[in-house]
Amino acid sequence: TDNYQAGREAAEKLCDAMEDNGKVALLVHSSLTESGIEREKGFTEEIQANHPEVEIVNVAYRQQDERNVDEIVAAVLQEHPDLKAYFGTNDVVTRELVEALSLQGAEEHQVLAAGFDASAKLLQAVKEGRLTGVMAQNPWGMGYAAAVSAFRTMAGMDTASVIDTGYYWISSENMEEEIVSLLTYK
């Protein structure tokens, strides 16, 4: 997955849902992993470059923060009661984010939430309207590309050093498309 580009597109989709203005916060799974670094970088650079009325007011790193997600979200909402959106950078933090926002009554305050990955639980949250959308990786494509690369290597053939298997924004508008079932993991 091109995590940088996927992060950019996720920011674009969330900014569209925010009507291109307001405050947004990020909950990043880790500042030490390539996926966390690239997703955050893509997300923030997209906003800085193309969404001047959107302000990133907080970035928290789940793996490096001693607080739990409920405490992180509560602190952000207390400091920014006018927060318009929140973004989580992987399945685990997005699931925790949805629960924390629910505990804080964020639905009443119209805080939008979005995230990364397409587990069945996150897609259920999209169906229920608790998530605006999720940026899905392509696990089917990853497995297929890995198998092809393995067979090519065993056959003594060259393989590509980088294979982009793509990503896909899933929202209530495209939830029923056939591709979504290939991108979802249980």
Q: How would you concisely characterize the structure shown here?
A:
The protein has 186 residues and is α/β, with parallel strands linked by helices. Helices cover 46% and strands 18% of the residues.
Major sheet description: 6 strands, mixed
Strand order of the largest sheet: 2-1-3-4-5-6
Low-confidence stretches: none
| Distance between the ends | 19 Å
Class by SSE composition: alpha/beta
Q: What is the number of helical segments per DSSP (H or I, 4+ residues)?
A: 7
Q: Level of helix content? A: 40-55%
Strand content: 15-25%
Rg (CA only): 17 Å
Please tag this protein with its features:
single chain, 186 residues, alpha/beta, 7 helices, 46% helix, 18% strand
Describe the structure.
The chain has 186 residues and is of the alpha/beta class. 46% of the residues lie in helices and 18% in strands. Strands 2-1-3-4-5-6 form a 6-stranded mixed beta sheet, sandwiched between helices.
Describe the protein's topology:
Elements: H1 3-17, E1 22-28, H2 34-50, E2 54-61, H3 69-79, E3 83-88, H4 91-103, E4 112-116, H5 120-127, E5 133-136, H6 139-154, E6 168-171, H7 178-183
